[in-house]
Amino acid sequence: MNLTVALTGASGAILCQELLLALEADERVAQVHFVASENSLRVLAAELGLSGRDNLLEKLLGAAPTKTMRHADEELGAAIASGSYPSSGMIVLPCSMGTLAAIANGLANSLIARAADVTLKERRPLILCVRETPFNRIHLRNMTLAAEAGAVIFPAIPAFYNHPIDSAEMARQFVCRVLAHIGLPQPGAYVWKAEE
Ligand SMILES: Cc1cc2nc3c(=O)[nH]c(=O)nc-3n(C[C@H](O)[C@H](O)[C@H](O)COP(=O)(O)O)c2cc1C
């Protein structure tokens, strides 16, 4: 697989960090294209204490990336901005209401919005892990618009029934659900067992 991952300025940067770590470790994934919006940098600083634009992947992964490459959100000439590039799909985690609006309305005015637009037009999987609370009617309409265009609205809502011991474990299990959804079931994923 060859996946695009976008980090936007909604709360939940740790979810994207765990996603990038899982994809780096997954032998079924050959390449990851990573794009962080300008506004995500503020949330990264607030939530993970990671500041500055430089070496962002190294900071998130704790090591040099082996298969993940970063693009600037202004880089509209990147390969993932074109439908002819054979991407397997795109995950926006977390997805802010601003980015949701841009995608739902086809603005294609940043690399994240354009790559999502291309993913939809090529009928490839697009997973929008939206995060806001509460939702206003504009958010709800934009989610419907995006879903009607083929996106999967996959809210960044963790599970509690697996008794996560910390926020990293909570994030890991959420990422397992996202990856299982696009055909990459993960070792260590909690599986709910029904009571007999
Ligand atoms: C600490 C922090 C948390 C935020 N959390 C959210 C959120 O959960 N959802 C959301 O839609 N916007 C959130 N925002 C606001 C977005 O960052 C803002 O709307 C921004 O314009 C989104 O831009 P982007 O989509 O290009 O990343 C948050 C901002 C900050 C500073």
The share of residues in helices is 25-40%
Mean pLDDT: 97
Structural class assignment: alpha/beta
Number of helices: 7
The count of β-strands is: 6
Tell me which ligands are bound.
Answer: flavin mononucleotide
Sheet bearing the most strands, described? Answer: 6 strands, parallel
String of helices and strands: EHEHHEEHHEHEH
Q: Taking strands numbered 1, 2, ... along the chain, how are they ordered across the largest sheet?
A: 3-2-1-4-5-6
Strand content: 15-25%
Structure summarized in a few sentences:
By secondary structure, this protein is an alpha/beta fold. The protein contains 7 helices and 6 strands.
Describe it:
There is one protein chain. With 196 residues, the chain is α/β, with parallel strands linked by helices. It has seven helices and six strands. It has helices at residues 13-25, 38-48, 56-61, 97-104, 111-121, 137-148, 167-181, and strands at 2-7, 31-36, 68-72, 89-95, 126-130, 152-153. Strands 3-2-1-4-5-6 form a six-stranded parallel sheet, with helices on both faces. The chain starts with a strand and ends in a 15-residue tail after the last helix. Flavin mononucleotide is lined by residues 8-11, 37, 39-40, 42-43, 46, 96-99, 131-132. Residues 8-11, 37, 39-40, 42-43, 46, 96-99, 131-132 line the site of flavin mononucleotide.
